[in-house]
Write a structure and sequence with these properties.
- This is SDR family oxidoreductase.
- The protein is an alpha/beta fold.
- Helix content is 43%, strand content 17%.
- The protein has eight helices and eight strands; from the N terminus they run E-H-E-H-E-H-E-H-E-E-H-E-H-H-H-E.
- Strands 1, 2, 3, 4, 5, 6, 7 and 8 form an eight-stranded parallel sheet that branches.
- The radius of gyration is 17 Å and the shape is globular.
Length: 243
């Protein structure tokens, strides 16, 4: 009997980093299950993967909903294949002064970057533990390490995600599951940076902003590491970024 094709799940498969990660794993033979709140926004990414000879399935899913996340992993395991890699890549970056940060904003950002990460990690662990293997990657940011002015909500959520990743790594590592937390410290080559920060985007030709494809290469490298040399946390930044 032919072994089923392994599945990589990307929660938050946006147009830049998430999409690049999905395409990278698809090139390595994984079947991709990619999610955003609106499945229609994933049609171009799925078409790209299929045009390159890969397989991909799009899901509209609110990662903050426990019911939807439980159903997502159950459906993938039942209808598509065993989840070997789960990547949480939801952004939730907002900036408000502390007196302008409403309770709704703070709670929503935490739900997007913290609580949704917990649901992703928990459901991935449930299906990986019986098989004794798997990789779970949570995308971090500069705010995972330090809270900047105006980023109280975002930093609080990213700190929570980092703590989640550390706790899961300590619990699941001895059971064969690699949990990692890459910190993306710098501007990424996205339409948002191009349109809103043209001076920063102009540094692209000097290697001054992160290339999503190069980020994706590091995610693949994390997945392929031998168990005796696992990385839990790494930071990726352009050479000119201060730290």
């Amino acid at each position: 009997m032919t072994a089923p094709t392994p599945v990589a799940v990307v929660i938050g498969a946006g147009d830049a980093t998430g999409g690049a990660i999905a395409r990278r794993f698809a090139r390595e033979g994984f079947t991709l299950c990619v999610t955003r709140r609106n499945a229609d926004s994933l049609s171009e990414l799925v078409s790209q993967i299929e045009a390159d000879g890969g397989k991909a399935h799009a899901f509209g899913c609110d990662a903050r909903s426990e019911e939807e996340m439980v159903a997502l992993f159950e459906q993938i395991e039942r209808d598509i294949g065993p989840v070997e890699v789960a990547i949480f890549n939801i952004g939730a970056n907002v900036r408000f002064g502390i007196t302008d940060t409403t309770a709704r904003v703070y709670r929503k950002v935490w739900e997007m970057a913290g609580f949704a990460g917990f649901l992703t990690g928990r459901e991935a662990a449930k299906v990986m533990l019986p098989r004794g293997k798997g990789t779970i990657i949570f995308t971090g940011a500069t705010a995972s390490l330090r809270g900047g002015s105006g980023f109280a909500a975002f930093a609080g959520a990213k700190f929570a995600l980092r703590a989640l990743a550390q706790s899961m790594a300590r619990e699941l590592g001895p059971k064969g599951i690699h949990v990692a937390h890459p910190i993306i410290d710098g501007a990424i080559d996205t339409a948002f940076i191009r349109d809103n920060f043209p001076e920063r985007y102009a540094l692209k030709d000097q290697g001054g902003i992160l290339n999503p494809q190069h980020i994706a290469d590091q995610y693949w490298a994390i997945h392929t590491q031998p168990r005796d040399s696992w990385t839990h946390e790494l930071d990726l930044r352009p050479w000119m970024e201060t730290f």
